[in-house]
Amino acid sequence: MADVSATAARRVRSRHCHGGDGAVVDTISGLPDVILQHIFTYIPTKYAIRTSLLSKRWRRVWCDTPSLSFNSSILNDDWINQTPTGYTAPKMMHFHLKSDKKHDAPHIDKWLEFVMSRHVENMVLSFLLLKYSFPDFFYVNPSLKQLTLKYCDMSPECSVSWTSLKKLSLVRCSVSDESMAKILSGCPVLESLTLNRCHGLSYLDLSRSLRLRTVVVVERSSSVTGPKVIEAPHIHYLYLRYAQFPCTLVDVSSLTEADVDTNEVITYSDKVMNMLEKLQHVEKLTFGGNLLQVLSVAQLRGVPFPMFEVKALTLKTRIFHYVIPGIKGVLQNSHDLKKLTVHTIHCKTKPAKQLVSSIWLSCPGDQKMRSVGILRQSA
């Protein structure tokens, strides 16, 4: 059966790639420009430019591709600088630049000025090992909709005007409270904010970001700390991963979904319960295994848990004795819970389901409306 299928596949490929006389037919070149340009958006620009050697028609195709992607660590700076001379697309949808060379700094201003002149909408910039300060014109861009910055120093000295920006992601960036406030004030339609291993930020005030709905904060180590305080009265989704002590949530009154854990098992403190009290009203909660171990300590110490209004609870953990008291404490205080999902790690699903089900069924609430799902996943 396998041999028949393989033979059939070869016949199909043969009909598509060869003419009746056995000559090779170039089916790719027959595609419309817009499809070829869409394909080019998934490959580095240097490969797209190389296709211009095929024919005059291919030379025209790459020049109008609405996407450019460069990695200066494997490309010559002069080669990148020559690219704009042949680029004719009036509108650029995506621009991706990765640079880890110190001598790239003088060229970056020109590259950014060029892509911004083409009204770029989605930009990803990564400056590893490079001390680079953005020019003022970078902070004024009415066409930008998505921006991801990695290893950047965010210290705007001018007013920020990203009037169309909806999604902002900062990865390993340096940003102060003052700079973040200035950035947020220039993003009136911002909907999603990600702070991944950023440092310098202490108080994250999102009270004036009226359209902001999603916030992601990730802290991988104690040496790079995220914001200590978060005030976000308008957000609907919150994802928190802290290395040590959790942050203080001031106002998250509009929150409907939260995913919370620590990146390592931390010592229990009152900050943990204070954070959970701010999540009492959330209808969809996800707790990780490290947090459940901390809650187990609280349960064994007799620390009272807040009453949760959660209707759908997800636990991402390995089921073992260090998390059982924490799970029990959460379930005992979740009388409105309708659905419980457990993503298990390194344990058999059937015993895990039996154990968690027995804990849940022993807790108060309407057992007729309850369901338990156990999903096994790798670590």
Q: How does this model look, in words?
A:
- It is built from 11 helices and 18 strands.
- The protein is an alpha/beta fold and 379 residues long.
- Strand 1, helix 5 (77-86) and strand 2 form a beta-alpha-beta unit.
- Helix 9 (289-300) crosses helix 10.
- It is elongated.
- The two termini are 37 Å apart.
- This is F-box/LRR-repeat protein At3g18150 isoform X1.
- InterPro entries: F-box-like_dom_sf, F-box_AtFBL13-like, F-box_dom, F-box_plant, LRR_At1g61320_AtMIF1, LRR_dom_sf.
Topology, element by element:
Blueprint: H1 2-17, H2 33-40, H3 45-50, H4 56-63, E1 67-71, H5 77-86, E2 94-99, H6 105-117, E3 122-127, E4 146-150, E5 153-154, E6 167-171, E7 174-175, H7 177-185, E8 192-196, E9 203-205, E10 214-218, E11 229-231, E12 237-242, E13 248-251, E14 257-262, H8 270-277, E15 284-288, H9 289-300, E16 312-317, H10 324-332, E17 339-345, H11 349-361, E18 371-377
Parallel strand pairs: 1-2, 2-3, 3-4, 4-6, 5-7, 6-8, 8-10, 9-11, 10-12, 11-13, 12-14, 14-15, 15-16, 16-17, 17-18
Helix pairs in contact: 9-10
